[in-house]
Amino acid sequence: MRTYAPASTRAVLEQLLEEPSLARGVVHHEVREARGADHGDWPSWLDPRIRGGLAKRGIERPYTHQADAIEAVHAGQDIVVVTPTASGKSLCYTVPVLQALAEDPSARALFLFPTKALGQDQVAEFGELVQDAGLEVSSACYDGDTPAPIRSAIRKAGQVVVTNPDMLHSAILPHHTKWFQLFEQLRVIVVDELHTYRGVFGSHVANVLRRLLRLCAHYGSSPVIVCCSATIGNPAELAQTLTGRPVRLIDRNGAPSGEKHLLLVDPPVMDAATGARGSALTLAQRWALPFLKAGRQTVVFGKSRVAVEIMLSNLRETLRMDLGPRSRIRGYRGGYLPTERRSIERGLRDGEVLGVVSTNALELGVDIGRLDVAVLAGYPGSIAATWQQMGRAGRRGDVSVAVLVASPAPVDQYVIHHPEFVLGGRPEEARLDPDNLHVLLAHIRAATFELPFEPGEAFGPGPADDLLAFLGEGGQIRQADDGRWYWSSENFPASEISLRSAAPENVVIIDTTPDRPRVLGEVDLFSAQVLVHQHAIYMHESTQYHVDRLEWGERKAYVHRIDADHYTYANRAVTLKPLDVFAHAPATGGTRVHGEVMVASLVTLYKKLKFVTDENVGWGPIDLPEIELQTTAYWLTAEGAAVGWRRDELDVALIGAGRAIQAVAAVLLMVDPRDLGLVSQVRSPHHEAPTIYLYEAMPGGVGLSERLFARHAELVEGAADLIRACPCDAGCPACTGPRLEPEVDGNALALRLLASLGSGAGSGASAALRRAAVA
Amino acid sequence: MTAEAAGSVTRERRLANLRATLARSGGAPVGPDQEPARAPFAGRRSPVLAARLAAALAADVTADEGALLVRRVVAPVEIPVDRERLARLPGHPPADAPLVCLDTETTGLATAAGTLAFLVGLARWEGTSFHQVQLLLPDHADEPALLAEIARWVTPDAWLVTYNGKGFDWPLIEARFRMAGRPAPAHAGHLDLLPFVRKVFKHRMENARLRSVETELLGVSRVGDVEGWEIPQIYLEVLRGGPIGPLAGVVIHNEKDVRSLGLLLAHVEHRYADRAARHEAPRGDLAGLARAYARDRRHGEALECLDDALAAPPPVRDPFGRTAVAPAVAREAAQEQRDAWWSPKVRPHFGGRAPGSTGWRGDLANGRGGPLGPSPSAASWDTGSNRWTDERLAAERARTLRRLGRWSEAAEAWQAAAAAGGGLGAIAWIEVAKLREHRLDDPGGALAATRAAWRLLERLRTTGRAHPRLEADLQRRGARLAARIGRRTGR
Asked: Chain B 94-123, CB below 8 Å of chain A: which residues?
């Protein structure tokens, strides 16, 4: 099949599906019908200049979701807009903000984006609309790149200030007296890419917003909050938890879409005994290539920088041999320079760039227009990200194709065999816990620095007095004669908090690659043990770094950039002790519990595993002290289910079932499997029963365990399902973990245990998942 | 179970568990079943503290709508200042504006919202006597009284006199007023003496700290003065019930800071306010003063200063022909000395300027400080980075003439400066070329100047010190001039 002539997307797809070696791997193929646009009307109060500017940009009428949002913001309602990629979300807030500024130039708006690059994009786009509308509006980015002389101008006169949560936290809020013009007149706060504010980061940002709103109240403003999110399972709840206010959900998508084919593809099994499968990268290239040759714009997503580079060079090489358009294929990832990225984005919009191989860097709201084909080499880790990446394909008047190619990893295998789950159901819920004690205390310190606390004043759900009293014992906060709590230390508390990690004490990662070493990031101690031990391969923005040494006493890890074909995995030896039970309930065969635990962790050795195949290519020792982690956990005891078991078989069954539950939990809650630690005890000293613990691998947790407690039945069901669907004989890395003792059938034992814990008790194997899908 | 309900229940429980853990590991003084170590809040404490502070500092306690303030009046001293003469200096207040000297002591170095100005020293002249008052907060809650008192002092017609007050003290006061929900008091002007001292005196001082000003200019040296970094802790300890003795040192420190503002102003007025007075000033002072005038666009007075500077004796030269380096640089060199030259931490050095700067240059230098490294007496020489040589002064003078629009004199001055040769010579010839081309309508002369510059740069290039940007500029300039001359002659 050597076609370089342009061909339609449909024709190429039909040809591909007739190719037996490819068609065999297609596990699922569904077609979404084309749908037309649903338009609303511009509100009557809209300034004619803004309407004219929009018309100049080719926007004659708003889609329904835009019209709803604009009306709601104007009426002072907090909203969250949830629609697919490239459906014109930013118009939902730019139009009402412009209207407010047209009515009153002293008004102010604050736009928050999770990264600098997205903020800079937005300023450019907003500036174009302002110009077309012929309005005088000063909008500017306030981030780490903003030069000092411009900063003071933005503080005084910036009508629309675009920034990120880190900058808001460390540079704007502690210096609010210099920003009083902004705080006094703040009308709209925009939180874009809401779905990225989850986990530890989200918990921090929720507290940053509490501080922001507290200062607004001090200056007498009461801004409306507009959140925009990609599709996730609980947008309204997430927005409410993050902002602390009830938020109206706007999800009536009015944007049109063309016919779309969604395919789930599994690489062929190479070895039935071990369950080993072929490479996802190779298969992804095979799917992408014919579309590129036919001149269809295609994006290929890889999970790491290495995967991206491998696929990029292979695609180019193949196209070169076939005299195809190889120079129009570009790579796109974190390490590229901003100008280079901008030129690729522009090339994609105007068609100059034909194909792009990217990490998830293109997943966020970067404007690249709509493409014909998206190929995902590996499950991106969450349903929401899958939808985001698949959403990059979608021509309005034409056919588009999205292909998800699974890797052999357990989560991928689970997902690929449950198409109703990944394509039909609802995506994950994003969790965060603004009341994580470590996070909360840190931000109460920062908030006290910004403004003294009144006695009885609430921060979050309740009065902060007991927490202030606790901090007062440390001496950095004091209650003054007027009963208020004041900051009484020479330290600058905001500088002690990194929004991207939970613990107050962090290991700083220093990149020694450039001439002048720079700080790459921070990780909490608990994660540091496994992520930045000596000789670890540390991944940062899909770039690999080798850890040259870890100075544990100084809390510093020195790394340099490398390109390795493997990653490292450190074995954590964990002992766990329950501290407190927050909630417990009987479950089939035992009890389910949500509570607090103390985890002692010792890391003694690491393994080197090859990318893609996860093949073990070496190991090394790690010499680090044991550390303790106080966190929240979910656990299930099997006092009823395990009656009459042999102890050795029970041990294998607990580990197998635990691994499967862990994999399913990671899928359900949209987290990295490493965020959840697993401990199984044949006889827990605390409960005197066989127990499986899933604990959150960050101090205090971020609310994951509470959700696991609530979704216990789905976990047990899903775990059994995962094991049953796995094509291996008796346990493999994709389900119950690698086989430890060859003569034991780990799968059968785990399934037996799960059955007595209630799997299959419902109406069939994947009943819970289907319930989730319908809900 | 709603999220809120769950949150508030577990929040208490988690706090209790955290306390328990901390108690077990010895990290905090309290356990879950003990009472907190500190007594809980029990009404007003500041009247007692204020009285104790007043007694210890020989001060009074004043009350303002329930808020207390410890007010210390310093015995007035005579500091005569001729305001008419003072007003002639660049950036200095007009003769009729009341002056308010101000200096604050704070709980931190950031001018952010959580930093408190707990001690504010203020002063004003009544005739020739200098009246100082210090305001000390006995408690966070008493801040309204402090702000009210500041607002009474700073009147709309007043000028503030501070040292680094534009960057620190006043923005901090502004922040405190903003926190209290109102703007800071308006005033007619603000004389921050730090930038003035930097321009005029920095060349002969180790740094621009007020204490160095006292030693170098005012002939005052402080004994047993409290260090700036100790001050926040001393005050915060007092609030926590600690000893109040050390705070007396802070109050004296602040008193001296404010008095130095008055003395510095008088010194500047006596020695620099007119041409006759500054007759004996070092040439570096005069050159700096010229810059200060130039900043105010008073180029005529700047030119006077430069002429005086050129007439003043040249700076003392090191007898060995070594170039002294600025003391700050020398200090770094001394630190670097801790690593012996053979240790692997030290990069190899193959001649030329020592890697990472520093130390001494010239025949006697060993490249890294070493045994011939800088001594404290280095500070008494005119320092290298700020050295006001005849050539530099001449260049400065030529620039000033150009700003005054005296083109031909400026061109002559540049030509004189160009005699120095080297990189500066080339730049001077370029300036000559600019003036001849654009102001004096002499493209032929401009081309000659361009060629002269080119020759100097060529010589530099052969000795390995190329200036590619200057060369590129000259090439463009030369081509343009040649074309212009060609057009003229062709016509």
From this structure: 107-114, 116
Burial class (CB in 10 A: 0-12, 13-18, 19+), A38: middle
Mean pLDDT over the full length of chain A: 84
Considering only alpha carbons, which residue of chain B is nearest residue A237?
B3
Calculate ∠ Cα A715-A719-A723, nearest 5°: 175
Residues of A in contact with B46 (CB under 8 A): 481
Task: For domain B46-272, give its CATH number from 3.30.420.10, 3.40.190.10, 3.40.50.300, 3.40.50.620.
Answer: 3.30.420.10
Query: Is B29 near chain A, with CB under 8 Å?
Result: yes
Name the strand (E) or helix (H) holding A753. helix A746-756
Closest Cα partner for B262 from B391, B395, B83?
A: B83
Q: How far is CA A638 from CA A369, A588, A748, in A?
A: 52, 9, 17
- As a whole number of angstroms, the distance between CA A675 and CA A662 comes to 10
CB contact under 8 Å between B239 and A478, yes or no, is yes
CB A371 within 8 A of CB A392: yes
Tokens 């040192």 belong to which residue?
A: B249
CA distance B151 to B183: 10
Give the whole-angstrom CA distance, residue B23 versus residue B10. 19
Residue B182 φ/ψ, nearest 5 degrees: -145, 160
Q: What CATH number labels A48-250?
A: 3.40.50.300
A-contacting residues of B 160-189, CB under 8 Å?
171, 174-175, 178-179
Strand-pairing partners, residue A692, are: A636, A680
C-alpha–C-alpha distance, residues B241 and B244, integer Å: 8
pTM score, whole prediction = 0.80
Q: Give strand pairing partners of A601.
A: A574, A627
The answer, for B142 touching chain A at a CB cutoff of 8 Å, is: yes
Instruction: Closest CB to A176: pick one of B28, B38, B113.
Output: B113
Q: pLDDT by residue for chain B (491 residues), tens digit each?
A: 344 444 556 677 888 888 887 777 655 444 334 444 444 555 677 888 999 999 999 999 998 888 999 999 999 999 999 999 999 999 999 999 999 999 999 998 878 899 999 999 999 999 999 999 999 999 999 999 999 999 999 999 999 999 999 999 999 999 999 999 889 999 999 999 999 999 898 888 888 888 888 888 888 888 888 888 899 999 999 998 889 999 999 999 999 999 999 999 999 999 998 888 888 888 888 888 999 999 889 999 999 898 888 887 766 555 554 444 444 444 444 444 343 333 334 333 333 333 333 333 333 333 333 333 333 333 333 444 456 777 788 888 999 999 998 988 898 888 888 877 767 788 888 889 999 988 888 888 899 999 988 888 888 888 888 888 888 888 899 899 888 888 877 65
Q: What is the DSSP string of A22-42?
A: HHTTEEEEEEEPPB---B---
Contact A521, A540 (CB under 8 A): yes
Enclosing H/E stretch for A11: helix A9-18
Nearest to A695 by CA among A631, A621, A625, A629: A631
What residues of chain A lie within 8 A of the CB of B34, using their CB? none
Which CATH superfamily, name and number, covers A9-34+257-424?
A: P-loop containing nucleotide triphosphate hydrolases (3.40.50.300)
CB–CB of A461 and B7 under 8 A?
Answer: yes
Q: Which of residues 32-61 of B touch A (CB under 8 A)?
A: 36-38, 40-41, 43-46
The yes/no answer to whether this complex scores an ipTM above 0.85 is no
Contact A256, A37 (CB under 8 A): yes
Per DSSP, the residues of A29-88 read EEEEPPB---B----TTS-HHHHHHHHHTT--S-BHHHHHHHHHHHTT--EEEE--TTS-
Report how far residue A361's alpha carbon sits from residue A389's, in angstroms, rounded to the nearest whole number.
10
